[in-house]
Specification:
Blueprint: H1 18-43, H2 48-78, H3 84-108, H4 112-136, H5 146-170, H6 175-209
Helix pairs in contact: 1-2, 1-3, 2-3, 2-5, 3-4, 3-5, 4-6, 5-6
């Protein structure tokens, strides 16, 4: 006697783990890059060349980690692998990466005016995370705004450029290039700080409009 299985009885196809793996990589790179930055700060006066190479490695890792912010979403849609776990991790991954790296840079290398920009960015992220958690308890959501996406892009680009500046300064790259990197990092991080304030105001206004 033979038996047959229907489509209803068949197990659903297993979703690809590639998107979640990319998101987890981005999360893991936060503390890894932060640790490397602190290591570079230890060697900055003892062996500037070694410190410069560590910052260059940090730049590469950070760019790769930031790129997964686009790649994990692309593969999730391409492979039909969107899952609640992946969505939850993706929402936190950027914050883990940027918080770890900005805190380490604020301690090790950022000039005072960029420390202020970093505090604004991180303070806004804590505020919005708290608001989202509070709204979740009431069954409401706070969708990501377009300004928030621009802010995230600006801070990622600003941190990457500043890491490249640090590497270049310690590796004695041409002054003209260093000046350009320095100004680009300042403009990007302060633009991100300004967008952080605007997006926070937008989120708060959206909450106040909710019934």
């Amino acid at each position: 006697m033979t038996t047959s299985t229907t489509n209803a009885d068949a197990a659903p196809p297993r979703k690809s783990s590639i998107p979640v793996a990319l998101t987890v990589f981005r999360i893991a790179m936060g503390p890894v890059i932060a640790g490397l930055i602190l290591t570079a700060s230890y060697w900055v006066h003892r062996d500037p060349l070694l410190s410069g190479f560590i910052y260059a490695f940090c730049t590469l890792l950070f760019v790769l980690a930031a790129a997964t912010d686009w790649l994990d979403g692309y593969f999730a849609r391409k492979l039909d692998a969107v899952t609640p776990l992946g969505a939850a991790l993706d929402h936190s991954a950027d914050k883990v990466l940027i918080v770890c790296v900005l805190v380490a840079l604020a301690y090790a290398a950022l000039p005072f005016n960029l420390v202020i920009a970093a505090v604004i960015i991180l303070g806004r992220d804590v505020l919005i995370a708290g608001l989202r958690e509070g709204l979740a308890d009431t069954g409401k959501t706070l969708p990501v705004s377009q300004i928030g996406k621009w802010k995230a892009a600006g801070e990622m680009a600003g941190v990457a450029v500043f890491l490249a500046f640090q590497a270049g300064a310690l590796l004695n790259l041409p002054v003209e290039l260093l000046v350009g990197l320095s100004w680009a990092a300042r403009l990007l991080l302060w633009a991100a700080a300004g967008l952080a304030i605007l997006s926070a105001a937008q989120y708060i206004a959206a909450i106040l409009r909710k019934p």
